[in-house]
């Protein structure tokens, strides 16, 4: 039966998506700046904190099982029961497919190939199932009571079952609309004191585990313009790294971002506005952390890489190395530009800011690649501590924020909770 073949494809697609979502893994061919990443990282990829692929998988399996039972041509009453499930489940599958395809087309304006394949196959299977409903020839055929001498589904019952299916779709859409998934996770890990003064001694292998990294970032100043993370395993000289704000600020947070990450693009402007509000009370260390195997040895080889992430990170750091005062202008320009920005376009603008010769010299400076590796190691340390590799990441004292923030007020709430920093502190 073609419907079962289509359901098989939908089951494989939904099963793969569910496995990746629950394991916090990466989807094949779904890089950081891709459309499918935008879809799967959106609020619409979840229903009441559960990846939508999980209930989709269960519904596809239930519909497949119901078609198998109906195919056996059992007793009339059992056959009607199987078709009752097929009708309701088919409407759910079709309605959910139209809902999620509509979200991708009209709301997100981005597409996930795996999602679309599952939706299209599910929709086609549902159409075939509904097209082949065995309607009862006798108008007196009951639906919910025994009638062993009558076969088929009464027309009135079909209408009721369609309404049940539509009600379930309404619950799905309403749950997503009224209770949107919060894509930001904050894990707080109380810090502990340590006399370990090793710098950047993270012992890790690609995709492996590290036993040498303390459980908390415990970010705090250990001297003038010197930030310690993970009990001095990372010591950041604030004059030596890009930042938003003054290195002499009394509160320092760290932003790990990928230039190709849509949520990192949004967070940049939230950080700029927040720093402007807090002024000398806050500075943000800006560390590019490419989610790409081209320059990040600490993510698995099969991880979805953004092809240009490393090039953009090198350009950003080279601009800072060549002319620190131009770095903020470069980042503001970059995150204002279209997401289809090419490496050539970014390099041309960087040359306008610092000069072609100075940029070329900075690009060949070993410091750039060393800094990228350090940023990757810091991300890996956060990954080990939180069990989440997502981006962007903010380190606020003993807390790590993973994923997008929705507003400046959202960031203010985090700063108040984990650093005791409130907007009125700089309005004395």
For the structure shown, list the relevant keywords.
about 425 residues; alpha+beta; de novo design (two linked rop proteins); Glutaredoxin; 6-stranded mixed beta sheet; 11 strands; about 50% helix
Radius of gyration: 27 Å
CATH class of the largest domain: Alpha Beta
Residue fraction in strands? 5-15%
Oligomer: single chain
CATH topology of the largest domain: Glutaredoxin
* Mean pLDDT score: 90
Largest sheet: 6 strands, mixed
In spatial order, strands of the major sheet run 3-11-10-8-9-7
Name the CATH architecture of the largest domain: 3-Layer(aba) Sandwich
Helix content: 40-55%
How many structural domains can be distinguished in the coordinates?
A: 2
Structure annotation, total helices: 13
- Uncertain stretches of 5 or more adjacent residues: 193-210
Report the structural category: alpha+beta
CATH H-level superfamily of the largest domain: Glutaredoxin
How do the helices and strands follow one another from N- to C-terminus?
Answer: HHEEHHHHEEEEEEHEHHHHHEEH
Number of strands: 11
What is the terminal-to-terminal distance?
A: 74 Å
Shape field: elongated
Quick recap:
51% of the residues lie in helices and 10% in strands.
Please provide a written account of the structure:
Residues 193-210 have low confidence and may be disordered. The strands form 3 sheets. This protein has a 6-stranded mixed sheet with strand order 3-11-10-8-9-7. Strands 4-5-6 form a 3-stranded antiparallel sheet, with no helix packed on it. The protein has a two-stranded antiparallel sheet with strand order 1-2. By secondary structure, it is of the alpha+beta class. Helix 1 (2-22) runs antiparallel to helix 5. The chain folds into 2 domains: 2-178, de novo design (two linked rop proteins) (Up-down Bundle), CATH 1.20.1440; 185-426, Glutaredoxin (3-Layer(aba) Sandwich). It contains 13 helices and 11 strands.
């Amino acid at each position: 039966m073609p419907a079962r073949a289509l359901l098989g494809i939908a089951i494989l697609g939904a099963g793969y998506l569910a496995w990746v979502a629950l394991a916090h893994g990466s989807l094949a061919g779904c890089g950081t700046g891709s459309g499918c990443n935008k879809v799967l990282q959106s609020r619409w990829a979840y229903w009441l904190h559960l990846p939508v692929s999980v209930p989709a998988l269960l519904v596809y399996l239930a519909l497949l099982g119901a078609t198998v039972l109906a195919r056996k041509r059992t007793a009339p009453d059992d056959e009607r029961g199987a078709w009752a499930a097929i009708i309701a489940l088919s409407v759910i599958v079709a309605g959910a497919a139209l809902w999620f395809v509509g979200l991708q087309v009209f709301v997100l304006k981005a597409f996930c190939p795996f999602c679309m394949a599952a939706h299209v196959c599910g929709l086609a299977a549902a159409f075939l199932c509904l097209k082949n409903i065995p309607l009862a020839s006798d108008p007196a055929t009951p639906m919910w009571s025994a009638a062993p001498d009558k076969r088929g589904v009464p027309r009135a019952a079909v209408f009721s079952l369609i309404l049940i299916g539509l009600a379930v779709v309404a619950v799905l859409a309403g749950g997503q609309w009224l209770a949107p998934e919060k894509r930001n996770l904050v894990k707080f890990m109380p810090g502990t004191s340590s006399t370990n003064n090793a710098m950047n001694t993270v012992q890790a292998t690609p995709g492996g585990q590290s036993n040498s990294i303390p459980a908390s970032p415990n970010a705090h100043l250990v001297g003038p313009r010197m930030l310690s993370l993970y009990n001095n395993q990372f010591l950041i000289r604030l004059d030596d790294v890009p930042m938003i704000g003054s290195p002499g600020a009394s509160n320092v947070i760290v932003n790990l971002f990928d230039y190709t990450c849509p949520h990192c693009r949004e967070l940049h402007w939230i950080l700029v506005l927040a720093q402007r509000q807090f002024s000398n009370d806050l500075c943000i260390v800006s560390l590019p952390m490419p989610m790409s195997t081209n320059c990040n040895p600490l993510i698995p080889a099969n991880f979805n890489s953004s092809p240009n992430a490393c090039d953009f990170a090198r350009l950003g750091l080279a601009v800072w190395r060549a002319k620190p005062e131009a770095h903020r202008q470069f980042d503001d320009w970059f995150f204002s530009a279209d997401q289809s920005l090419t490496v050539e376009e970014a390099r041309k603008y960087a040359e306008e800011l610092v000069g072609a010769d100075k940029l070329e010299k900075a690009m060949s400076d070993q410091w750039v690649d060393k800094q990228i590796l350090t940023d990757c190691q810091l991300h890996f340390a956060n990954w080990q501590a939180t069990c989440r590799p997502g981006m962007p990441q903010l380190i606020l004292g003993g807390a790590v924020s993973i994923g997008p923030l929705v507003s400046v007020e959202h960031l203010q709430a985090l700063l108040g909770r984990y650093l005791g920093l409130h907007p009125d502190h700089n309005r004395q």
